Structures are given as C-alpha cells and as structure tokens.
Amino acid sequence: MGQLEEARKGNITPEMEIVASQEDCDAEYIRANIAEGTIVIPFNTNRSATGVCGVGKGLKTKVNANIGTSADHIDVEEEIKKLKAAENAGADAVMDLSTGGNLREVRKRIVKESRVTLGSVPIYEAVVTANSNKRSISEITTDDLINAVKTHCEDGIDFLTIHCGITLDLLKLIKERPRICGVVSRGGSFLVEWMSKHKQENPYYEKFDEILSIMKENDVALSLGDGMRPGALSDAFDGIQVHELNVLAELADRARAQNVQVFIEGPGHVPINQIQAQIQLQKELCKGAPFYVLGPLVTDVAPGYDHITSAIGGALAASYGADFLCYVTPTEHLSLPKVEHVKEGVIAARIAAHAADLAKGIKSAWKWDNDMSRLRRKRDWAGQLATCIDPERAKSLRESCMPQNEEVCSMCADLCVFKTADDA
Q: Domain residues for 327?
C-alpha cells in the first residue's frame, strides 16, 4: 500500500516517522493530514536510496530546483554537478526537465546520483522521442503519452507533473480570450497543439483513471500541472487560469479517491496584490491540497534578476499558505542555467521559504533566526558564519574586506553598536 492508503487505514509508515522527525511534530499529525490529502510524501517505492520530505499543512515550506539538458546543450555530467549544487544549497527536491539527448539515460543517472525527492514531466519524453523519429507533436499517440508516464514511474521518479486539466472547453476559452503571452507552459503548449490538430480531448484528461492506476503501483505522487499558468502579469487570474484550476480541483478529488497522493501546481507571473487571493482560492477549491507555486514572479521587467522577483513572490505566496516553491534562477527567460545559477536560485528560494515559515509561526524557523541574532549580538563571527543560510558566501564577503579589529566588521569598525554597548 502507498502512503495515502496506509494513512487512511490508520498506519504510520517509516516515511511518516522520518518526516515527523524532520518537522519536530507527532507522526500521528503527519498520518492524519496525509489521510486528509493536506500533506503529501512523494516517495517512489522503486527507489532504493532517496531523501524523504513532507509537503503540506503545518510543515516547513519546501524548495524545488529544476535541472536538465536541452537540445542546445547536452552534458549529463554538468547536470549531475547542478544536482549536487542544488542538494548542497539545501533544495528539498529536484526536477529533471531534460529535453536533449537520451532522456531515459539522463534520468536514470540523476535517479542514481540523487539523495533528494525527484520529479519529472513525462510529456517531454514523448515529444523528444517523436522528434528523434521525425514525427511531429501531432503524430504522437495516446499510447506514447501513457507509456511515458509508465517509464518515469518505473525509473524511480517520486512525483510527476502531468497537465491533465487542459480540456476542449478550455481550448475554446483560449481562442475567445487572447492573452499577451498565450500558453507559456511547455507541456501545456504541446497538448494544446495536439488537441487543436486532432480536435480530440486531452489524452491525460480522458485517460486519467489509467494514469492513476499506473502511478498508484509505485506510489508516485501526482503534481497536477497548470498548463494555463500566466506568463505575463496581465494574464494572471484570468478566466482561462481559473477554469483550469476548477478542473484540477475535480481531478484532485478523483486522485485521492484512488489513493494517489496529489498536489496542485500554481501560477508563474502574478502581481503582488493578487497573490493572497490566488492562494486562498486554490486552497478552497482543492480542499487544502498542497500548493506548488512556480515563483510567482511579481514583475516581468527583470531578466537577469528573476531569482529575486521570484523570491519576493514566493515569500508572499508561502506566507499565505503555499507549501512548495519552485526556484527560479538568474538565467530564467534568458538561457540554460549553469551550476552557479542553480545555487543562486536555491538560496533565493530558501530565503523566501524561510521568511514565509517565520510568518507561519514554524518553531524551527524562529529558533534558527533567534540563534543567529544571539550570535550576532555576541559578535561571535565563527558562530554566525556556521549558522547562516550560505556560510561559504558570508565567509567570502567578510574576508574580502577584513577590519583591523576582528571583533567587528569593516562596515562600522570600532563604531559597532554592539561593541559600544559592551564597552559602556
């Protein structure tokens, strides 16, 4: 049995015990909320070694990092370096979004090397395989799409993002209500093209029960992808996005009824004044299912700094109840990220997550901040550097301009307020 089925039978699994220990809470709390569908533990039973994390109600906000090859840059070793950079920077999960090279070999290598929760998007493989065989997206078959899901489950992926909420009704809305940026979800755009060509329903929606059966076999969690997420601030919270969210709410109910753990993927570009309402609507419609947000980015004009625009939106979203933040790197909208960009993106998202956890009243978050504040007050530099979110960067910056008196920093030197108070 999977986590959800075990929880509904009143059983506490080893993974629930691990999460309870990580979160400093009672294992019964984890079990009860998994049974309710408000906490998810993505954990593929095919993986022999993996990090376990819980996502959802009352838990620390989690951070995901995206890695993966592209057709323009196929270097598996570099992706493994990115994986390790993400893990070392404190990411709770990593998604393999590869679209270049032998995708299954890339994925198997990432699964083998990873020590954190792993996610993927099966439709990418169906499309890349078709392209390699000189077939267009419209020539992909329903079996191709379903088989991609099976393969990713068999290979040990813990959660799959599948764009099940794009329906023929939604296609009508897309034509009636043009957006500035249209469909910006890559998986969503593939399905829109396929459906428009065939005039048929989305296979992932039509075959949803079959997909659930496949995922249940290895207890793979379902991330219901928001194929209609806004890619521009002006597109946010429109009828297209809300229509899809209602479909995702219906599908989440069906997934839970089949004992498949589920969380909801959320919007990408959202103005600050809409974030709270968007989170509240998702939580209400989806009955408290964990919410996985892609940023959100709070302005469209900052390429090169979108890890910052994303962190601003992520902190607000998580403080209002989002549970899982997908990082954004400085290269978003510009290029494939390098190893250093992965670290920057993870740290920015972790800062956002931690800031939100303080607002949520997470005890461990407050303890961390209070520990750091006490070390700062004592001018315990070794303690501060060991306790902060990025010790390597903090140490480098301090050493770049050392003060004459090592008890202080070179900003205030002997005018340090703490030194003044101590000398009084």
A: 61-360
Separation between Cα atoms, residue 306 and residue 308, nearest integer Å: 5
Task: Answer whether residue 43 is part of any domain.
Answer: no
Q: Find the DSSP H helices in 177-207.
A: 186-198, 203-206
Q: Is the peptide bond before 296 cis (omega within 30 degrees of 0)?
A: yes
CATH of the domain at 248: 3.20.20.540
Q: Taking each helix axis from N to C terminus, what angle separates 339-360 and 306-319, rounded to the nearest 10 degrees?
A: 20
What's the pTM value of the predicted model, to 2 decimals?
0.96
Same domain, 352 and 372: no
What confidence tens digit (pLDDT) does each residue in 310-356 have? Answer: 999 999 999 999 999 999 999 999 999 999 999 999 999 999 999 99
On whether the CB atoms of residues 297 and 314 are closer than 8 A, the answer is: no
Report the DSSP pairing between strands 93-96 and 117-120.
parallel
Do residues 245 and 197 share a domain?
yes
* Domain edge (last residue) among 315, 331, 360: 360
Question: What are the angstrom distances between the C-alpha of 376 and each of 152, 227, 264, 348, 416?
Answer: 47, 45, 40, 22, 11
Among residues 94, 107, 97, 158, the alpha carbon closest in space to that of 349 is found at 94
